[in-house]
Backbone:
């Protein structure tokens, strides 16, 4: 006779928990594999470059600068809309 708590058989609760652990481990392995795949596909540009043109909606002059980044460094997007605003 197995252990029981209230009306629930303890061995069936353990079986359910073991199944949840198996699912979690499989899910975690997939997640880790995807992250490693993303990390391996990182690319950067060789040198700084820029583009200049006219804004589509405002018609103002626009200057976009692309800068190379080192591995695992995030890119930052800065937008300056109003004149004389840093």
Residues:
């Amino acid at each position: 006779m197995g252990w029981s708590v209230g009306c629930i058989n303890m061995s069936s609760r353990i079986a359910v928990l073991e199944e949840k652990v198996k699912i979690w481990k499989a899910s975690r392995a997939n997640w880790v594999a995807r992250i490693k795949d993303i990390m391996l596909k990182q690319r950067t540009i060789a040198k700084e470059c820029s583009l200049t043109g006219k804004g589509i909606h405002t018609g103002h002059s626009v200057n976009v600068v692309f800068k190379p980044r080192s591995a695992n460094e995030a890119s930052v997007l800065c937008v300056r809309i109003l004149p004389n605003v840093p």
